[in-house]
Amino acid sequence: MNTSDYAEWAKWYDLFYSTESGDEVEFYVAEALAADGPVLEIGVGTGRIAIPAAKQGVEVFGVDASVEMLSAAEAKAETTGPLPGVLTLLQGEMRTLDLGRKDFSLVTIPARTLLLATTYDEQLATLCCAARHMRPGGRLIFNMFNPTPDLIFDESPEPVEIGQAVHPDPGLRYRLSAINRFDSESQVNEATQVVEEIGSDGSLTERARLPVRLRYMFPHEVFAMLEETGLHVENVYGWFDRSPFDEDSEELIFVARRPE
């Protein structure tokens, strides 16, 4: 995704995640609470995870490439009220990140953000940057979708329904969908997320098309990358309830540790 796309994405980001179960947020907040030290979140977005973690007393440093996303996170944090923890928001590029410190107990890359690095080398560079910020014994946790054959070889031109969201104003609702264009050779999906605002009379009042370019990853690639970074894989989950990963899992969640 180009940084120029983020201004429009920041406007609709929380709307897309309003259709989610909340399992991802609960998972990462629980891991942050268990970390016993400062947490670095790469790809903090609008603070969807970082703010709830700070509300639980966690010291969180949230990094994002987008000033629009960070502005949305700052505004949201202000309306949340006093935070028992600490929330520091910083602009930075995940592929070259260097905060000048190596004391983070936990580094997270939630929301499939790692896939926004669209080559193998860029994804490896991102993981290396994450690993360099970890203290000995610290952990890295990140998630991505499981690239099943049914998903990546689906050539249907029809949009994939994501769900519907309700606007705070009475009578308005949103229909959310995605158009995927998977290239199995490059492992890149040139996707478009679509927001359609529906008025009280059922008419379409607004449509937004949000581009997103990502490179999906297979498990064997991730194991190889983590080995190269010097991190040891502790767990691979198939969902945020910590159920074991199998070939039919929807999600791939890696937990890796830096040796003491």
Characterize the structure shown.
The model has no long low-confidence stretch (mean pLDDT 92). It is globular and about 60 Å long. The protein folds into 2 domains: 3-147 and 216-257, Rossmann fold; 149-215, Single Sheet (N-terminal domain of TfIIb). It has 7 helices and 12 strands. By secondary structure, the protein is an alpha/beta fold. Helix 1 crosses helix 4 and helix 5 packs across helix 7. The longest helix has 14 residues, at 67-80. The strands form 2 sheets. Strands 3-2-1-4-5-12-11 form a 7-stranded mixed sheet, sandwiched between helices. Strands 6, 7, 8, 9 and 10 form a 5-stranded antiparallel sheet that branches. The chain starts with 5 loop residues before the first helix and ends with a strand.
Give me some keywords for this one:
260 residues, 7 helices, 2 domains, globular, N-terminal domain of TfIIb, Rossmann fold, alpha/beta, 12 strands, seven-stranded mixed beta sheet, five-stranded antiparallel beta sheet, single chain
Quote the average pLDDT: 92
Number of strands: 12
Helical coverage, percent range = 25-40%
H and E order: HHEHEHEEHEHEEEEEHEE
User: What CATH first level of the largest domain would be assigned?
Assistant: Alpha Beta
Spatial strand sequence of the major β-sheet: 3-2-1-4-5-12-11
- Overall outline: globular
Most strands sheet: 7 strands, mixed
Q: Which oligomeric form is depicted? A: single chain
User: If you compute it from the alpha carbons, what radius of gyration comes out, rounded to the nearest whole angstrom?
Assistant: 18 Å
Helix/strand/pairing category: alpha/beta
> What is the CATH architecture assignment of the largest domain?
3-Layer(aba) Sandwich
Tell me the CATH topology of the largest domain.
Rossmann fold
**What is the domain total for the residues?**
2
Model regions low in confidence, pLDDT < 50 over at least 5 residues = none
In terms of DSSP E residues, the strand content is 25-35%
Cα(first) to Cα(last) distance is 36 Å
